[in-house]
Specification:
This protein is α/β, with parallel strands linked by helices. It is built from 25 helices and 13 strands.
């Protein structure tokens, strides 16, 4: 006998064997037991969710000579004839390849004749949305008022393409995606029937890859069994056959991206390539991993939404704590766009490398999401002291600044007077002159940033206006100078003190005015000018 694919061999033979569609099975069984059988049904839902299987079961049940609790017995001549596809009572039409008005007219002509055996003639039209407009029109009248012995079952994956005139004549049943746990349980029963050893983790991964489709999951399992025929089916073997990547690899890759480690990203991608993984699947799986992190980061009970083993769930929750939700959304958007482009690309690796660099280096992009990511990077660097400069650099810089202003070189820091509001207004007015008097020292503190000064509206402080929030973050980020922690804005204050002889509290804000950081002299490390000269 020719080999049967697993999804055909283990097609449900009774309603009780149908998994994941209890709401539909219960309704149809109640109709059968009560004799309230409709004349037209519309089964709609994604692929592999059981539409055709339930249609065939229903066709057998309405004609079965000895039904059991609404399900066909499977042993009577009518059931056997339908299973063998030789029954004249059940007609299946694939509308994808038989979508003309002539095909529908053949059905209309055959409707005139009553069944030779059983009670009903059942017409199952699969992918009904593919029928032409004229074919739909030809079907309308017969679908509305067929003979009492005729039942139409229409199945489709794209219900929105079906005319409203057809929809209004049918009882509609929406098939749900089957949960990963349900599919994994079905696959486990199938493996036991086939007497093949397996790891539960392997079946769970296949079920998740099936994306809610029982048929797709069974086909993937068939492929894995064939590749490792006669061997125990393990998680690693499933990854090998499906060209997929383990969750640990995605965790490593995300850490490299967050650390702006482009070399690490490229090495991981090279590992994936050497292992023979399919790159399109790699991108899709990485986006799915980030989606799981986003859910874990934004929901109170991710265990109720995500379907993972306890070990992987702990890893997901731990990793989600390290990434802002806004950053994850940006990454998912970039990967989703990449997934669409990579499908037909000839240089898949090149495209992936470019996008990984974009993820790791947000400064290369100018959109709002990238700017938020750049701020995150600066915050991380500030927390880790990432703005640290070589030992002695501070004393060098400010030593040169001191030599450029000999009149204030030996000022005692603690003896300086705090600037009054009039002093602050004068410093703001004379800012360009101050910058011109010590240009090199200003450049060493502010770099290429464009800064202006103005008095604070609240009085008593000087406002340093930066051109962007990024520059504000840079000015307030921590620096290691001679073993002590200080900020650029504090160094700038010290330089102003040298030039003017006044202590000034400084606020930092972007030109949008929405990022203020106050430098309070009393809270800074007490430091004399001669210590940093």
């Amino acid at each position: 006998m020719a080999y049967l694919a697993l999804y055909r061999k283990y097609r449900p033979q009774t309603f009780d064997e149908v998994r994941g569609q209890d709401h539909i099975v219960t309704t149809l069984k109640n109709q059968l037991k009560a004799g309230r059988i409709g004349h037209a049904y519309l089964f709609c839902g994604t692929r592999g969710t059981g539409k055709t299987s339930i249609a065939k079961l229903f066709a057998k049940a309405v004609n079965c000579e000895n039904p059991v609790d609404g399900s066909p017995c499977g042993n009577c001549p009518v059931c056997r004839a339908i299973d063998s596809q030789i029954s004249m009572n059940v007609t299946e039409l694939d509308a994808a390849s038989n979508n003309s008005v002539d095909n529908i007219r053949d059905i209309i002509d055959s409707v005139k004749y009553s069944p030779t055996e059983g009670h009903y003639k059942v017409y199952i039209i699969d992918e009904v949305h593919m029928l032409s407009t004229s074919a739909f029109n030809a079907l309308l009248k017969t679908l509305e008022e067929p003979p009492s012995y005729v039942i139409f079952i229409l199945a489709t994956t794209e219900v929105h393409k079906i005319p409203i005139t057809i929809l209004s004549r049918c009882q509609r049943y929406d098939f749900k995606r089957i949960t990963t746990e349900t599919i994994a349980g079905c696959l486990a029963d199938l493996m036991k029937a086939e007497q093949i050893e397996y790891e539960e983790k392997a079946l769970h991964y296949i079920a998740r890859t099936g994306d809610g489709s029982m048929r797709d999951s069974q086909s993937l399992l068939d492929q894995c069994i064939a590749f490792y025929l006669g061997q125990k089916l393990t998680y690693d073997k499933v990854l090998e056959v499906l060209g997929s990547v383990d969750i640990d690899v995605f965790a490593r890759l995300l850490r490299c991206i967050l650390a702006q480690n482009v070399d690490g990203c490229m090495k991981i991608l090279d590992e994936v390539m050497v292992a023979g993984r399919e790159l399109g699947q790699f991108v899709a799986d990485f986006a799915w991993y980030l989606r799981n992190l986003l859910i874990a980061a934004t929901t109170d009970s991710p265990e109720d939404v995500l379907e993972f083993s306890k070990e992987n769930m702990e890893l997901i929750i731990h990793e989600a704590k390290n990434v802002p939700a806004e950053t994850l959304i940006r990454y998912i958007r970039i990967l989703s766009e990449l997934s669409n482009r990579i499908r037909y690309a000839t240089q898949k690796r090149l495209l992936i490398e470019i996008e990984l660099i974009k993820l790791a280096r947000p400064e290369m992009q100018k959109d709002n999401e990238a700017i938020l990511d750049r701020i995150r990077v600066l915050e991380d660097k500030a927390e880790r002291g990432g703005f640290a400069m070589p030992a002695g650099a501070a004393s060098e810089d400010l030593g040169e600044a001191a030599s450029a202003a000999p009149a204030v070189q030996q000022i005692d820091y603690e003896a300086l007077e705090r600037a009054l509001p009039d002093d602050i207004r004068e410093i703001a007015l004379q800012w360009k002159r101050i910058v011109a008097s010590v240009p090199e020292e200003i450049d060493k503190i502010t770099g290429a940033m464009v800064l202006t000064m103005k008095p604070s509206e609240r009085g008593g402080k000087l406002v340093l206006v930066c051109s962007s929030e990024i520059d504000c973050m840079s000015m307030t980020g921590a620096l290691e100078r001679g073993g002590e922690t200080i900020t650029r804005i504090a160094l700038l204050r010290n330089l102003i003190a040298k030039v003017t002889g006044k202590l000034v509290d400084i606020e930092c804000e972007s030109s949008g005015g929405n990022n203020n950081t106050v430098v309070d002299i009393s809270k800074l490390v007490k430091m004399k000018i001669d210590k940093i000269d």
